[in-house]
Predict the 3D structure of the following.
Amino acid sequence: AKKQEGNSFAFYDEAHTVKMNRAFNVKTALQQADFDRDFALHYQPVIDVQTGHVVGAEALLRFSHATLGRVSPGEFIPIAENNGLILSIGEWVLRRACRDIGPLIEMMSDRFKLAVNVSIQQLESRTFPFALKAILEETQFPQDRLVLEVTEETSVSHSERVKETINQIKSYGVDISIDDFGTGYSSLEKLHHLKVDQLKIDQSFIRELDETTAIVRAILAMGESLGLSIVAEGVETKDQLDFLKTTTCDYVQGYYFSRPLTFKDFQSFLSNKT
Ligand code: C2E
Ligand code: CA
Ligand code: CA
Ligand code: CA
């Protein structure tokens, strides 16, 4: 028995080492990355539940490295968040997204919004609001067409700085959306206090809709009472869409409509729609 314990410990240790090495390699790759060459933004259409019109797009970052190949954001974003790299990556993302989508805005419906994900480290940085303002000016992107998505955990964590940053961002006319809503612990009071504009229902609730209908209805009622717009993420089937059509949900996003697309494919998607 003793020998087995020893073995399982060694096994754990080895798995841990492999994981640490991988994280180290990803970190090194990010540090050495040529952003314009190794990063790309994909865009996933956001759809009006009732009309089926495209009313927005969410920018999702992709990283492709010479030796590591494609690394998913689920893997590299937490690593970038752990060592400050997310600040320069986040600025690159904002600039790229505003440059890509800016020229399309005029052709789109006047409700069209660009959604960009931001990390807590960006909201905690004193310089972030200035960087954001500079990027909006440099790209001539209309502020009221931008939505920043922050995770529920991020937005309700009680840092004064985060609250100040959110207020400053909102004073530019930029909207704030709470991502992965329902997975954290925000109260009505906190959401009201933060003056957010939108909630995105976490895709886990949409995936298990049979079991989570009551929760989804509760989130929709809560959003309604606060006057927020609501997006349902991860819509993959017609059944899920048909259910959401019977509710006050405003927007939907998911593979049922489209996967995240390269900028070029996103443009084709738009021209096929109109
Ligand atoms: P998220 O913001 O919740 O983005 C939604 C994720 O769900 C994306 O994964 C998207 O490709 C995927 N998705 C969309 N529709 C469906 C569907 O119908 N079914 C399923 N199963 N999945 C769907 P992705 O692109 O791998 O991104 C993962 C996470 O990485 C994002 O979750 C976000 O938290 C983070 N992320 C991505 N880009 C950025 C970025 O530029 N900055 C920051 N800070 N985080 C980012
Ligand atoms: Ca998001
Ligand atoms: Ca989400
Ligand atoms: Ca509504």
